[in-house]
Each structure stands twice: as structure tokens, then as C-alpha cells.
Write a structure and sequence with these properties.
heterodimer, A: alpha+beta, Multidrug efflux transporter AcrB transmembrane fold, Alpha-Beta Plaits, Gyrase A, domain 2, 3 domains, 3-stranded antiparallel beta sheet, 10 helices, 12 strands, 52% helix, B: Multidrug efflux transporter AcrB transmembrane fold, 2 domains, 4-stranded antiparallel beta sheet
Chain lengths: 445, 311
């Protein structure tokens, strides 16, 4: 028994201890404090893919800046909406992916997230004689442009939602739900001037170029408070307040893809697949045990350790598991078994060729190594291409890269399992001279 | 010892027939592309109260006419017996328009209607998904070819080894895709992004198997076990046979269990793996190695059993 094997055994035991500790049951969660992180397709929820119209952006900022600003604002909206663990990601130059786990009624979320929510004020139009212009139905007509005023430094500024300090939903006993707002100091200054020159006239409130209301300005409004009455429902007022607070989006967005997974379907699918995987793995272990005997038994143990490590890595980082990610993990399990099979077949050949047990174990590992190395590196290359393409592409990106990431981790781990764990165990057993019968190694002599 | 190399012409013939059938099926039946590749909107239309089984044909035909009237003659409508909802697939409809559609249907049927949209993909995205999948497979194949050529650089003409491995891989992909085009015709199996993931798995598996066989050939060449390349290859195939079959069998255990007892959502994905695994094991044993023998010996005229033998 060599010293190095003892060191390795200790290392394996320490790592196993750490892995077990990280997936230990805490409270109701079986796997560590956070449990496994499941993707949308498994726990249910919605995902929305938006495309931004960058031609409408402010020319003074770059596309990347505009997109980052939009992502940040969507983040704020979603957070105030109260979704748990939302994911908001920029994808490519002009796309944004929004994932809302657990959200089933998506129409509300769509209305909340994608609206530009550009608030502005417009003055009433008057003809040469100073009387208000009316349209065919007798409604007042407003200027096409946002009301402007000079700020303290004498610069002309448009009065828009960007000067808002905050907005909140409120209820007026007569008008029902309203949205109240408060300007910041700059906005308050502009607002005061605009109200001053419009006393007795109408001032229109526009949201996304749509007329919401046109109250009469009864007096100059200093202090910088105001309200929007627009026959809202309570929900609408609430959402508008959230949108105004998060700021208007810098570029308009349109939905180009959405996917909603019924949580119960995901749960059912997991349940069934989990059972199926357990049956499959038991069959696999039985096969290894009967075909390879003692080494097969050792392989079962090292595959058990492999599974523990894999789960520990998934929970530790954490890696978001999707259906395809689980597929990648299963394939990597197949490859982990393959590494063991390669080694054992080699060992049997060496035993049949008349080598001693110790020599056969060493030769088995050394000879199998090139095959394991080359086949696994080819897998790594394929995974690398998929991860690279997956993260740069669109809708189902998370699916393809999810598969590749778990496969990559699994294959890397399988090399460690086969080369370090299985080998150390075999060396220790062979070195201890406890088991020497060739038949226990699956060889008839 | 099993004579893989000696029977190579029969293997090539079998594979050639399979590939020809696959290609014909692809040309005639094509693949049934899922929403991921065509773009469009899928939705479940849920009437309140629920539609009874007995009145479903009548409601369905009325719904069809309504969809045509609303400008969706392309709509495919299906009655789902279990949930008693209608599953409808149309071209891409934006979320606001879905609400309009719901109001129109409510008005036409004088019934409350709920519409949920499990998936919608705009045509632009769909096109990108299909293109990316193609690019992914292409780049991965080339990268693997280069790596194999490098890994076998000590062998004469390593590029041929890489090419043979990639030919075996293309063989597997063609046959799996061909079988799916037949399945698409028979059972309506659709090709979606999940299918592509499955295909990529098959590619990884196939190349893995081939590399293990080639690794043994490489070792046996350096041991000079026979001056005849055909004998060396055959010897290597026989020696790795136990490993190839055992690995495939163990993986098949898991796949088969998933196929029989797994959830519906991954059914076709697992089916791709199942078919691909079998075809991949076959091609790494019976195609990749023997093809390398033909190439190394320059015996292209002996590719198929009925080819003329040189006098």
C-alpha cells in the first residue's frame, strides 16, 4: 500500500464530506439551503423575449447604453411587481429575455414590463383669436409637442416623466383610483412655470402618446405635486405608478417570443422522469455489479460519489437545471460509466494475458487513459461550441447551453472519478491482498 | 474473432440503403417543423363552461370559421379530450392581438373564453434558431475533425481518421433525422429545439465511440501486430467490442427507462437518443473503421458487394 494512495483516499473522503455537507437536508429542502435551482421548464413560469427598436433611441447614447438602461428599468418594474427570482437578460444587441418563474397569468406582466410609459404634458391649442381649437366632436385639441419651460439656468426643457421623484397609486373619494406624483426640484420648477402660463386653460397628460386626461389648471402649482385621473382600475393605477417610478423605457419594445409552462406539467414531468432515471440507474449498477464483479462494485461506489459531487456542484454554484440540463447530466453519467468500463475491460485483458493483479490494474488505467482523454476532449470541444453559440443566440439559448454546461461539468467530473477515485480504491484493495481470486475480477482462468 | 472488416461491403450496403431511404423520406415527407422553427403562436382556448365531448365537433367547425373570419385561415385546431380545451396553432400573433381575438370569440360564441399561450415565436427568431442549430452542428463537426486529426498526428495521414469519424457522425445524424421524418408522417412527431439538443447528444456519443475504437487501432499500429492494416483494424474492433457493447447497453438501460417511464415532455428527445445510440454504436463499429481501411488501401472500387472486382 503506497503512501500516495492513502493521501488520495483522505482527499476523496474530505471532498466527499464537503459535498455531503453542501447537499445535506436543511429544513424542508433536501439539497442544501437553496435546493437545486430549477429552470422555468421544470418549475413552471413564463418567459418573454423582447426586441428593442434601437432606431428610436436618443442619438446621444450608444445602443448598449440604451439597452442597459432598459434592462435596469425592467428589473425595477419586475421587482416592484413582486416576482421571486426573475431573470432579465440582454441577448444580442437588441433583445431582452425576461423570465418570471411561477407567474401564470402573463398578460398582466406583459402590460407592466413592455410599456414604454413615457409621461408628458401638452398645452392646449388656440387659434389666432385666442379661442380654443376644437375637433369635429367638439373636444379640445392639444399641441403636438411636449410642453417646455426654461429651467433655472435658462435652458429650455421638455417636461416629461424623467423629472419625477416618485409616483404612487391613491384613491380619490370622487374620482376613484388615481396616480399621484411628486416632481423633483427641477421638475417642480418647470411645472410651476407651465402651470403659471396655463391658469384657466387645459393641460393634457399623455402616456405613450395617448391622451390620459386634461384637467383644468385652476391655479399655479408650486411645490411640485400633481395627480393623474384616468378612469383607472386599482390594478392599472398600481401598475402605472410602478412604471412611472422605474422611469420610461429608453426605446420601445415589442414581444417576439413567449413561452409559458404550466407548473403542474413541469412537476409531473420531473416526477416521472426522476422515477425513470432511478430505475435506469439501478439497472445500470446491477449490470456493472454482475458483469465486472469486484471492480463493478467499486465502480458503483465511485459512481455514487460521482453523483454526490455532481449534485454538490449543481447546488453550490448554482447551476440552473433545465430538462435539457438533466439530459446532459444523464449523458455524462453514461460517459462516467464508460470510463470505468474502458478501464475494466483493459484490466481483464491484462489479467488474461497473465499479469499479476497489481500490474493489471496499473496497465488497465494507463492503457485506457488515451481513449478516455481523446474521447472526452472531443466531447469538451462539442460542449464548448454549444456553450459559445448558445449564449450568443436567442430564444432557446438556455436550453442548448444548459445541456452543454451540465455535460461539460459531468464529463470533467467523470474523468476525475475514473482516474482518481476508482483507481485509488482498486489500488488499495489490490494492495491490501484481501481479494486475490481472479474470478472476482470477472476473469476465468 | 468477428470479421468486421471482411463484411464491410455489406455494412456499407446496409448503411447506403438506410441513408437513401432517409434522404428520400426527407425529400418526400420532409420534417414536421415545430413552432421553434416556423414561428407562430400556439394557444389553448378554454370555453367557460367547458365544451362537452358531444358538442365538440360542432364547436370546432364553428371555431374554424370564426378563425377564418378573423383572418387566420392557417389556424390548426385540435380538441383536447382530457382538458376539453381547444389547442390552436396560428401564425405569429402579438399578445395584444390575442386579447382582441379572445373578445371576438367571446362575442361570437356568447360564452366566456380564456386563452393561454404556451408558446409563441416570431418568424425572425425561428429562422435564427434553425440557422444557429445548423451552424452549431457544422462548427462542432469541423472542430472535432481537427482535434481528431491532431490527436492521431503520429499516424500517417491523420486527416483521414478525422474525416472517417465525421462521416460516421453524419451517417448517424442523417439516419436519425430520416427516421424522424417518417415518424413525423406517421405520428406527427415534430422537430423542435429539444430535438436539436438530442441530435447534438447523438453526435457527441457517436464521436466518442469512434475515438475509442480509433485509439485502439492507433495502439495496435504502434505495437505492429500485423503488417495488414485491415487485420489491425479488425483486431482493434474485436478487442473494443466488449467495451462498445457494454457502454451502449448501460447507457441504453437509462435511456430505455426514461423512454418507457419518463415524462411526456421529453419523450421525443429520449427517442432521438435511443435511436441515435443504436445507430451510433453500429456506425463506430461497422462504418468508421472499415471506411478507414478502404481509404488507406485505396480500394474504393470494392466499396459495395456487387462492385466489379479488379481482375
Amino acid at each position: 500500500m503506497r503512501k500516495r494512495d492513502i493521501y488520495l483516499l483522505n482527499l476523496i473522503l474530505v471532498l466527499l464530506g464537503l459535498a455531503l455537507w453542501s447537499i445535506m437536508p436543511i429544513g424542508t429542502k433536501l439539497l442544501g439551503p437553496n435546493g437545486l435551482t430549477l429552470g422555468l421548464d421544470l418549475k413552471g413560469g413564463s418567459q418573454l423575449l423582447y426586441e428593442a427598436d434601437l432606431s428610436k433611441k436618443d442619438p446621444s447614447v450608444t445602443g448598449t447604453e440604451a439597452m442597459s438602461a432598459v434592462v435596469e428599468k425592467i428589473q425595477r418594474r419586475v421587482n416592484q411587481y413582486g416576482t421571486t427570482e426573475p431573470v432579465i437578460q440582454k441577448q444580442g444587441p437588441d433583445r431582452i429575455l425576461v423570465q418570471l418563474p411561477g407567474v401564470e397569468d402573463i398578460s398582466e406582466a406583459i402590460a407592466l414590463i413592455g410599456k414604454t410609459a413615457l409621461l408628458d404634458f401638452r398645452e392646449q391649442k388656440f387659434d389666432e383669436n385666442g379661442s380654443p381649437v376644437l375637433d369635429e366632436e367638439g373636444n379640445p385639441v392639444f399641441e403636438n409637442m411636449t410642453a417646455k419651460a426654461k429651467d433655472k439656468d435658462d435652458n429650455e426643457k421638455e417636461l416629461t416623466g424623467k423629472y419625477l421623484n416618485r409616483a404612487w397609486q391613491d384613491v380619490d373619494p370622487y374620482k376613484g383610483p388615481i396616480v399621484a406624483f411628486e416632481w423633483n426640484s427641477e421638475g417642480a420648477y418647470l411645472f410651476e412655470q407651465i402651470t403659471r402660463r396655463n391658469v384657466g386653460k387645459l393641460l393634457a397628460i399623455y402616456l405613450d402618446n395617448e391622451l390620459i386626461s386634461h384637467p383644468v389648471v385652476e391655479e399655479v402649482i408650486p411645490g411640485g405635486r400633481g395627480r393623474i385621473e384616468g378612469h383607472f382600475t386599482l390594478d392599472e393605477a398600481e401598475m402605472l405608478a410602478i412604471q412611472l417610478n422605474s422611469g420610461s423605457l429608453d426605446v420601445p419594445l415589442t414581444i417576439i417570443g413567449q413561452e409559458n409552462v404550466d407548473p403542474t406539467l413541469g412537476a409531473d414531468s420531473i416526477q416521472k422522469s426522476k422515477r425513470a432515471a432511478i430505475i435506469g440507474i439501478i439497472l445500470l449498477l446491477l449490470f456493472m455489479l454482475f458483469y465486472y464483479r469486484l471492480p463493478g462494485f467499486i465502480a458503483c461506489i465511485s459512481l455514487g460519489i460521482y453523483g454526490t459531487f455532481l449534485l454538490a456542484i449543481f447546488t453550490f454554484f448554482p447551476i440552473t437545471l433545465t430538462l435539457s440540463g438533466i439530459a446532459g447530466a444523464i449523458l455524462s453519467l453514461g460517459m462516467a460509466v464508460d470510463a470505468n468500463v474502458l478501464i475494466f475491460e483493459r484490466m481483464k485483458e491484462e489479467l488474461r494475458a497473465g499479469r499479476t493483479l497489481g500490474a493489471a490494474v496499473e496497465a488497465g488505467f494507463n492503457r485506457a487513459w488515451t481513449a478516455i482523454r481523446d474521447s472526452n476532449i472531443t466531447t469538451f470541444i462539442a460542449c464548448g461550441v454549444l456553450i459559445w453559440l448558445g449564449t450568443s443566440s436567442a430564444f432557446h439559448a438556455s436550453m442548448v447551453s444548459g445541456f452543454a454546461i451540465t455535460l461539460f461539468i459531468g464529463v470533467a467530473l467523470s474523468m476525475f472519478t475514473a482516474i482518481v477515485i476508482t483507481r485509488t480504491f482498486l489500488r488499495l484493495i489490490v494492495g491490501s491482498q484481501l481479494v486475490t481470486k481472479p474470478s472476482l475480477y470477472g476473469v476465468k482462468i | 474473432m468477428i470479421d468486421f472488416v471482411g463484411k464491410k461491403q455489406w455494412f456499407f450496403l446496409i448503411s447506403l440503403i438506410a441513408i437513401v431511404v432517409a434522404i428520400i423520406s426527407l425529400v418526400v415527407f420532409k420534417l414536421q417543423p415545430g413552432l421553434d422553427f416556423t414561428g407562430g403562436t400556439s394557444m389553448t382556448i378554454n370555453f367557460i363552461p367547458k365544451v362537452e365531448q358531444s358538442e365538440s365537433p360542432q364547436v370546432q367547425s364553428q371555431l374554424r370559421q370564426e378563425m377564418i373570419r378573423l383572418g387566420h385561415p392557417e389556424a390548426k385546431i385540435q380538441f383536447l379530450k382530457e382538458s376539453r380545451d381547444f389547442f390552436v396553432r396560428t401564425k405569429f400573433i402579438s399578445p395584444e392581438k390575442v386579447n382582441e381575438l379572445r373578445d371576438n370569440i367571446e362575442a361570437a360564441f356568447h360564452r366566456d373564453v380564456e386563452i393561454s399561450v404556451p408558446l409563441e415565436v416570431s418568424p425572425a427568431i425561428a429562422e435564427k434558431t434553425a440557422r444557429n442549430a445548423g451552424i452549431a452542428v457544422g462548427i462542432a463537426a469541423i472542430a472535432m475533425l481537427i482535434y481528431i486529426a491532431w490527436a492521431f498526428r503520429r499516424m500517417p495521414r491523420p486527416f483521414r481518421w478525422g474525416t472517417c469519424a465525421v462521416v460516421a457522425l453524419i451517417h448517424d445524424v442523417l439516419i436519425v433525422v430520416g427516421i424522424f421524418s417518417i415518424l413525423g408522417q406517421l405520428t406527427g412527431a415534430e422537430v423542435n429545439a429539444m430535438f436539436i439538443t438530442g441530435l447534438l447528444t447523438v453526435v457527441g456519443y457517436s464521436i466518442n465511440n469512434t475515438v475509442v475504437v480509433f485509439d485502439r487501432v492507433r495502439e495496435n499500429i504502434s505495437k505492429h501486430i500485423s503488417p495488414d492494416f485491415a487485420v489491425t483494424v479488425n483486431c482493434s474492433l474485436t478487442e473494443t467490442l466488449a467495451r462498445s457493447l457494454n457502454t451502449s447497453l448501460t447507457t441504453l438501460c437509462v435511456i430505455l427507462a426514461l423512454l418507457l417511464f419518463g415524462g411526456v415532455t421529453i419523450h421525443y428527445f429520449i427517442l432521438v437518443l435511443f435511436i441515435g445510440l443504436i445507430v451510433g454504436t453500429y456506425s463506430s463499429l461497422c462504418i468508421a473503421g472499415p471506411l478507414l481501411v478502404i481509404w488507406e488501401k485505396g480500394e474504393w472500387s470494392k466499396l459495395l458487394p456487387f462492385a466489379k472486382r479488379p481482375a
